[in-house]
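User: quick one - fold this with zinc ion bound?
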Amino acid sequence: MSEIHGLAVHAAGAHLLPYKYDPGELQANEVEIKISHCGVCHSDVHLIDNDWGFSKFPFIPGHEIVGSVVAVGSGVVDRKIGDRVGVGWQADSCGVCEWCRQGDEHLCAKSQPTCVGRNGGYADRIRVNSRFAIPVPEVLESENVAPLLCAGITVYSPLRNHGVRPSSRVGVIGIGGLGHLGIQFAKAFGAEVTAFSTSKDKEAEARRLGAHHFLNTQDTGALKKVAGSFDFLLSTVSADQDWQGYVNALRPKGMLCVVGVPPSPMQIQAFSLLGAQRAISGSPSGSPRDLHEMLDVAARHGVKAITERFAMSKANDAVAKVKKNQVRYRAVLAN
Ligand code: NAP
Ligand code: ZN
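Assistant: Sure. Structure tokens for the protein plus zinc ion:
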């Protein structure tokens, strides 16, 4: 097989540079995908800057991938050449542990992230275990569906798995790549949805996407005014927040679920949890089972990412714009 060409980062915070690697022999369980689109998730930015301390340089970022299958390994029976598929945060898992056996492959201790210790989607092609190459429903456009493979599943899974329903009052905190999809999925679950944002100019779009209410978190006392109001709060923010204010905004039995990755530890008064039986949780991406389901739900309910397209060669411009919180709402690289 020929070399794979992409854009790699060689040191923390450095610019992406042209890079190629030899993928070796195609493994029996792998598919090779010709990439048409790849979203720029804020997690790529964290990895590029080595914010989490586990980036392995050099590497090609990118884990919101859509493309078509161009080669299948000898053991692959459920994908064929020409299939349009998507790949998210995860490229492989052990396949035999307790978690893999019960369909929670994203919790496998040997889970392999698509662009940590491997090369991701800012490239012309990629190879992954076929179980993590999820067929994309025909009605979804590749550019708008690419962000669903990470941002979409990351907000869909907690809404689904924590039982959000039509009677739920849901708040989505941070209206970026994840958040603007969180509003749409929360609406699809039938909930009453509030968008929490630092950007006043996002109000009209948030309401158009399905938010019933918009709360500008820069307003003095904004969180105090909604104390005791929400069953489920989903934080997609990559910065430190008034976590105590958000816990106080929960109703009894309410849950604050953190999917964004802020830099500092969170400090919460135990009393504010135990008195009203509130909970805090986290959620990583999602399982292949939830990915299949999420794409079906997106197709049926018209959930799609609002995108800004960049040529693959302009990936550095896209990353810079994400860092400045100027993208509305997901940058997508196109080959
Ligand atoms: P994004 O597109 O940059 O959006 C993040 C949003 O957070 C921004 O649009 C902004 O929304 C808000 N925000 C940014 N800085 C803020 C600040 N200083 N104070 C308050 N709000 C701020 O990022 P993303 O791709 O959605 O990713 C968000 C976070 O989720 C990142 O930390 C990423 O690593 C993480 N993530 C986690 C998973 C997982 O598996 N759990 C998966 C994907 C991403 P407003 O303008 O509306 O305030
Ligand atoms: Zn991501």
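One thing worth noting: The mean pLDDT is 97.
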